[in-house]
TrEMBL record:
Gene Ontology CC, one term: cytoplasm
Region (Disordered): 84-146
Domain 4Fe-4S Wbl-type as annotated: residue spans: 21-81
Binding site for [4Fe-4S] cluster: 22, 46, 49, 55
PANTHER family, A to Z: TRANSCRIPTIONAL REGULATOR WHID-RELATED (PTHR38839)
GO molecular function per UniProt: 4 iron, 4 sulfur cluster binding; dinitrosyl-iron complex binding; DNA binding; metal ion binding; protein-disulfide reductase [NAD(P)H] activity
Pfam families per record: Whib (PF02467)
Organism: Streptomyces qinglanensis
Sequence ranges of Basic and acidic residues compositional bias: 137-146
Obligatory cofactor(s): [4Fe-4S] cluster
Free-text function comment from the UniProt entry: Acts as a transcriptional regulator. Probably redox-responsive. The apo- but not holo-form probably binds DNA.
Lineage of origin: Bacteria, Bacillati, Actinomycetota, Actinomycetes, Kitasatosporales
Subcellular location: Cytoplasm
Superkingdom in the source lineage: Bacteria
Protein name: Transcriptional regulator WhiB
């Protein structure tokens, strides 16, 4: 995923950074708020910047160089989220990354019984038997501790 668009054509040729609104700031630390602090001032500067998209694309393409601060109106957390969601471009790994979470428990286990209950799915006999075994083991453990 990249930010689409480009700087206006009426800008002279050269590096996009030469035309960044933040370049003329008296205090560049404004663009690097402490982690977790609101980045409202930095974002307001980026809102009217003519090279915002180029800046954001550069930050997404060079995450090691743009690890901190607000770049193209995107905070560190927002850039990290975009980078995590990118589909890998490596031809050896064509499938999209997994959507998170654990692999689903197989039927016939107590965990699968819990999943069936949580998702209001029909509960099969193998899962019921596994749940009974788990409950019996918990009762035996509690009795032994008492």
């Amino acid at each position: 995923m990249s930010i689409t668009g480009h700087a206006p054509d009426n800008l002279p040729r050269g590096d996009w950074r030469d035309h960044a609104a933040c370049r003329v700031l008296a205090d560049p630390e404004v663009m690097f708020p402490p982690p977790g602090a609101p980045a409202l001032v930095a974002r307001s500067i980026c809102d009217d910047c003519p090279v915002r998209r180029a800046c954001a694309n550069w930050a997404l393409s060079n995450p090691q160089d743009a690890a901190f601060g607000v770049w193209g109106g995107l905070t560190e957390r927002e850039r990290a989220t975009i980078l995590r969601r990118r589909v890998p471009r490596d031809p050896d790994h064509p499938q999209a990354p997994r959507k998170g979470g654990r692999p689903q428990a197989e039927c016939g286990t107590a965990s699968a019984y819990d999943r069936h209950v949580k998702k209001r799915e029909p509960i099969d006999d193998a899962c019921r038997a596994a749940k009974r075994r788990r409950d019996a083991a918990h009762r035996a453990k509690a009795e032994a501790a008492a």
